[in-house]
Amino acid sequence: LTFNWGALLGWSAIQGSCNWSVCLPLYFAGVMWTLVYDTIYAHQDKRDDIVIGVKSTALKFKEDTKQWLSGFSAAMVSGLCVAGMNCDQTFPYYSAVAAVGVHLARQIYTLDIDKPEDCWKKFASNRTVGVLLFVGIMLGNLWKRKNSETVEEPLESR
To answer: Where does it live in the cell (predicted)?
Structure first.
């Protein structure tokens, strides 16, 4: 939960205050994403966790892991969409969110929770999620800025 405080702090640092209608869905999406990649990571060493008594989402979800990951991923994408709507995001942002959804769906569909090397590969592929979101936010904001400059241009100069 603490890991995702950046959603609240980053917005506040840039905007000067926290717009809860944007920050809370963004924070929620971050928590859901953390549950996805952390659960995948936890499946790598679940045998050791059993031996030493560590409780993990991998042990809790067992063979239902893919269903849980699918739910967390859907919740993440929903949170990103709500955050985007509440801050007037644009086409590039939503395209990136859609690409994130496809990436996560493929990741979950092909995941073999009983092969540590596959779990590591899927865990590491979450960097793609971060890159997609970063690019989507940046391009979405540039698109927003360009559109606002076009709208503000006086009619006489067109």
So the answer is: Membrane
